[in-house]
Automatic annotation (TrEMBL):
Matches recorded under InterPro entries: DNA-dir_RNA_pol_helix_hairp_sf (IPR024075), DNA-dir_Rpol_C_phage-type (IPR046950), DNA-dir_Rpol_phage-type (IPR002092), DNA/RNA_pol_sf (IPR043502), RNA_POL_N_sf (IPR037159), RPOL_N (IPR029262)
Enzyme class: transferase
Functional note: DNA-dependent RNA polymerase catalyzes the transcription of DNA into RNA using the four ribonucleoside triphosphates as substrates.
Region (Disordered): 1-32, 74-108
Lineage of origin: Eukaryota, Viridiplantae, Streptophyta, Embryophyta, Tracheophyta
Gene3D superfamilies: 1.10.287.260, 1.10.287.280, 5' to 3' exonuclease, C-terminal subdomain, DNA-directed RNA polymerase, N-terminal domain
Source organism (scientific name): Lolium multiflorum (Italian ryegrass)
SUPFAM superfamilies found in the cross-reference section: DNA/RNA polymerases
Transmembrane segments: none
An example Gene Ontology biological process: mitochondrial transcription
Name under which the protein is recorded: DNA-directed RNA polymerase
Length: 1036
């Protein structure tokens, strides 16, 4: 062997360890043993010399050896004692892959292919030559992924690359060293980036309000030094003007409470945070509430504002609590042991955070501090006091013309006023106190959102895995697996259930939270351009208000009354437009902040029925077409042949206009015919033909146009990388679940549970039935039937859109009043009926006909709904809430109880608060149980699908009954979601529910389960339906 520096010395000179040699000594083809031992290689690396012929293959599983080449530890010690090998990955008892034989030929060929050994799925979930993918927290060690890249390089197929056969083993070892160093460097860079993002996330969660306070202090200094106030944005200048007096007022109140012997109830909470941080929280929370208040933009109820501000202060205190708990206090000076222990604990927490060992830090925090709930009363009293300080400290200056000698016109920015009773949705609202902002503040709302701090943005690293009710989600922010909204029974139920029972729930939430998103910059640029030009197209709200009607010159009382009504409607519309503009600004503000990030994550939690929601409130895939168009997967995947097809179908679905009801082949033909317009939309989205603007979901349609255009214009469309999530939506999902529960064949066929030539459209079917009834009524004698005039007005207005929302919500318990309001809104949008009285009467008539058509078509669903309602009424009559366990093990308790009002006296006013009583709201328990039970079923189906998709290697996102994956994975997901639906309804769900009710409420005599239909065929027919559906099993 030629003389060379052994690789061991090369590695040790760089601070790396080589593992001790293994017992295997390779034998060359000439029979001589070599000195090349396998100490320089890592798990699963194939042998580079032929194995000994005398070693028969063993059929027994044996351990893989682990080596420490890729684990950089301390420099090697000069010790005669041999070091033990260090494992790169958990020891597996799987059988090792067979080692390929490489024989030196005579003469030796210039190249030989290195055949890849089969890899165990448990050890190698994915192989990539590109940058390694970081797993979710806890922070991965470098040995968790670095060696995968080198193994992929050395053992990839022959058609991928070939390794030149070296003349000597020294050259081969040198090549391994070179590749190893390259992979290590890439792994170190990836790990460093992950640590950097994780540190940023920790700071974002723990220093959000502190950064805002520091910003205002810096602005104050700059204003004094360089007179920067005139160049600040309008709202920033307002905040800057309020910050100092409000901070000083809070500080004075804190000093006063410290000196008082008898303190206010809110005093101990007021002293928990610094004055500047409290000032920032109050200003920003108040402005956010005023922009999004249901009472109309520009005012918010005192109770709501006080509670929201108190909650924000409590949340911030909990984030900072563990630092404050271990901080040296002046009163502990006389106790050196306690002081030393606190300092030690604080240093340990800081050290763990600095070393990215956040799991250990979180555990230490939970041990050191008991974060008890403050309670609503404490939150409201603290929030009310802070609002009072804001009212006394915040002023605005009128820009009206003033003489140089006149004094400035300062007036309060916020007022505490009594709102008069108003009629809303047919009900008289009681009078109540509100916080109302000055018109000068109100005018700046539309540009406020981008300057209002949103303290908690989407996460830069994968969320912490859920392990309990309050263990998971954010790294340090208080996170809860369920939104209980103060319902004690539900909170106790989920805390009491064994963790093992919630394994599927936690796993599904972790999968949803681990999906990596990013901002689609091209679509975002289009949105910003349209928004800067005034909006009003592509679903964006118009930046201008509608004109107010002028007062008529006549004094006729009827004309004056009509003018007042029209003025009231115009003002209401303008308030709604204003609120929509504020909401749009908040969404775009988040998009601007996250635009340059490579990716981000949305932690998810549940409502009490089990439906999953992103925890971020503004920009998320759960929201509007704007948000969905601006978001895309951070990781792209090649389209492939099936992916290109599904991308075209997705584009047709998003264009809508009836195209979504056609067969897949018709959708593909539509896209092919519209290719020139699609290319124009992608290349010139703003100043082109604007074909995409007419779509039902314009921004999602635009994103699909851009993705398809890129693919078709590339040299190989099937290999084009797509980041677009493709949606597969349920066909009136609630009715699908009722049809499966009742084995209703007619209902199943109407909602696409039975295969057909083209997708069935339940909304069009109901609209056709309604139209038949309306036409029949319009032909009757008006003297004998009062509905004839209404039918004649309605006959030209009936279409799919008129009935869609009512059909969709009928299975979720929509009332007649709710359905009437839905249909009235659709008729208002058409604009053919201008008289309010006639519009009301026609809406009532159309609602009756629509609900009758639904009852005739889905009799089985009506029977199940009635049975569920009867069971709920029996349970609630015993003063017990309805409770059950979902198909994935989630305990569900309906939170409907009668509330009690009680008064608390605050420094600002007396406030009426509500708290949960002991009495059960029987009627509400009955009405809500059928829709809540169906929601628990669709959430179970989504979780089961998410878990199976993850196991299949798919990137899954879900919005209730809408499932999203990459285009190339749609066929696989379609198979999975159907199989999971069959898996769900292979269980006797209604029978299990009845058995659980009988166990929980043994004194109640429940009626038997409703009879099932004929959607149960024999084995041969089931196999036929399964083949048509493309699944292994079928309900049919």
């Amino acid at each position: 062997m030629a003389s060379h520096t052994p690789p061991r010395l090369q590695f040790e000179s760089r601070g790396w360890h080589a593992s001790p040699p293994s017992d295997t000594i390779a034998t060359r083809s000439n029979g001589h043993a070599t000195t090349l031992r396998q100490r320089y290689y890592f798990p699963l690396l194939p042998s580079l010399s032929p194995p000994r012929e005398s070693s028969p293959p063993s059929s027994k599983p044996r351990f893989y050896r682990g080596f420490s080449l890729l684990t950089k530890l301390r420099p090697p010690e000069r010790s005669p004692t041999p070091r033990m090998p260090l494992l790169l990955s958990p020891i597996s008892t799987c059988a090792p892959p067979p080692r390929p034989r490489l024989r030196r030929l005579s003469p030796p060929p210039p190249m030989v292919a290195v055949a890849p050994p089969p890899r165990p799925a448990t050890l190698l979930p994915s192989l990539s030559i590109g940058p390694p993918t970081l797993p979710p927290p806890p922070t991965p060690a470098i040995d968790g992924f670095d060696w995968l890249d080198l193994f992929a390089f050395l053992s990839s197929p022959a058609d991928s690359h070939q390794i030149p056969h070296p003349e000597t083993e020294a050259e081969l070892e040198a090549r391994v060293v070179e590749e190893l160093e390259r992979v290590v460097e890439r792994g170190r860079a990836s790990l460093a980036e992950h640590r950097r993002l994780r540190q940023r996330q920790v700071k974002a969660e723990t220093e959000a309000w502190a950064r805002a306070a520091e910003e205002y202090r810096a602005l104050e200094r700059d204003m004094l030094d360089r007179n920067l106030a005139p160049s600040l944005p309008y709202v920033k200048s307002l905040f800057l003007g309020w910050f100092e007096p409000l901070r000083d007022a809070v500080a004075r109140d804190q000093d006063l409470q410290r000196r008082k012997r008898v303190k206010h109830v809110y005093a101990k909470y007021l002293l928990l945070l610094p004055a500047d941080k409290l000032a920032v929280i109050v200003m920003h929370r108040m402005m956010g509430l005023l922009m999004s208040s249901k009472d109309g933009c520009g005012s918010v109820r005192v109770v709501q504002a006080a509670h929201s501000i108190g909650e924000a202060v409590e949340r911030e205190f909990k984030v900072q609590a563990f630092f404050q708990k271990t901080r040296k206090k002046s009163r502990s000076k006389n106790d050196p042991a306690l002081d030393k222990e606190q300092a030690k604990c604080r240093k340990l927490v800081k050290s763990l955070v600095r070393r990215r060992k956040l799991t250990e830090a979180q555990k230490l925090v939970q041990q050191e501090i008991e974060l008890e709930e403050w309670g609503t009363e404490a939150q409201v009293k603290l929030g009310t006091r802070l609002i009072e300080l804001l009212l006394d400290s915040a002023f605005v200056q009128s820009p009206a013309d003033q003489t140089p000698d006149s004094s400035p016109d300062f007036r309060p920015a916020f007022k505490h006023v009594l709102r008069k009773p108003i009629v809303e949705n047919g009900r008289l609202k009681k009078k109540h106190f509100v916080i109302e902002c000055d018109p000068l503040v109100h005018e700046g709302f539309e540009s406020t959102a981008r300057h209002v701090d949103i303290p908690y943005l989407p996460m830069l690293v994968p969320p912490t895995k859920w392990k309990g009710y309050d263990k998971g989600g954010h790294l340090f922010l208080p996170s809860y697996v369920m939104r209980t909204h103060g319902a004690k029974d539900q909170k106790e139920a989920i805390k009491r259930v064994p963790r093992k029972q919630l394994r599927k729930v936690f796993e599904a939430l972790d999968i949803l939270g681990s999906t990596k998103w990013r901002v689609n910059r091209r679509v975002h640029d289009v949105v910003e351009t349209i928004w800067s030009r005034g909006g009003g197209i592509a679903g964006l709200v118009d930046k201008g208000n509608i004109p107010l009607p002028e007062r008529p010159e006549t004094e006729d009382p009827d004309e004056i009354q009509k003018w007042k009504w029209s003025l009231k409607k115009a003002n209401k519309t303008n308030r709604e437009l204003h609120a929509e503009r504020c909401d749009t600004e908040l969404k775009l503000s988040v998009a601007r902040k996250m635009r340059e990030e490579d990716g981000f994550y949305y932690p998810h939690n549940l409502d009490f029925r089990g439906r999953a929601y992103p925890m971020h409130p503004h920009l998320s895939h759960l929201s509007s077409d704007l948000c969905r168009g601006v978001l895309e997967y951070a990781e792209g995947r090649p389209l492939g042949k099936s992916g290109l097809r599904w991308l075209k179908i997705h584009l047709a679905n998003k264009y809508g206009g009836g195209i979504e009801k056609l067969s897949h082949e018709s959708k593909l033909a539509f896209v092919e015919n519209q290719l020139p317009d699609i290319f124009d939309s992608a290349a010139n989205p703003v100043d082109g033909k604007n074909w995409w603007i007419n779509a039902e979901d314009p921004f999602q349609c635009l994103a699909a146009c851009m993705d398809l255009s890129d693919a078709l214009k590339s040299s190989s469309p099937h290999h084009a990388v797509s980041h677009l999530p493709i949606h597969q939506d349920g066909s009136c999902n609630g009715l699908q679940h009722y049809a499966a529960l009742g084995r209703d064949y007619m209902g199943a066929a109407a909602v696409n549970l039975v295969p057909g030539a083209k997708p069935a459209d339940i909304y069009s079917e109901i609209a056709a039935r309604v139209l038949d009834v309306v036409r029949e009524d319009s032909m009757k004698d008006p003297a004998t039937d009062p509905n004839v005039p209404l039918a004649r007005v309605l006959v030209d207005q009936v279409d799919r859109k008129l009935v869609k929302q009512t059909v969709m919500t009928s299975v979720y318990g929509v009332t007649f009043i709710g359905a009437r309001q839905q249909i009235m809104k659709r008729l208002q949008e058409k604009g053919h009926i201008t008289d309010d009285k006639l519009l009301y009467d026609v809406s009532c008539y159309a609602t009756r006909v629509t609900l009758d058509a639904l009852g005739q078509m889905f009799q089985s669903a009506r029977g199940i709904m009635a049975w569920l309602g009867d069971c709920a009424k029996m349970i609630a009559s015993k003063n017990q809430p309805v409770r059950w366990t979902s198909a994935v093990g989630l305990p569900v308790v309906q939170p409907y109880k009668k509330y009690k009002n009680y008064m608390i006296r605050t420094s600002l006013q007396c406030l009426a608060l509500r708290k949960e009583g002991d009495a059960i709201a029987v009627q509400r328990q009955k009405a809500a149980f059928p829709p809540n039970f169906v929601h628990s079923l669709d959430s179970s189906h989504m979780m089961m699908t998410a878990i199976t998709c993850k196991k299949a290697g798919l990137h899954f996102a879900g919005v209730h009954d809408s499932f999203w994956v990459h285009a190339c994975d749609v066929d696989k997901m379609n198979q999975i979601l159907r199989e999971q639906f069959v898996e769900l309804y292979s269980m006797p769900i209604l029978e299990n529910l009845l058995e659980e009710f009988q166990t929980l409420f043994p004194t109640v005599q429940f009626p038997p389960c409703p009879p099932q239909g004929n959607f149960n065929l024999g084995p041969a027919e089931r196999g036929c339906w399964a083949q048509k559906l493309g699944v292994t099993r079928s309900l049919a």
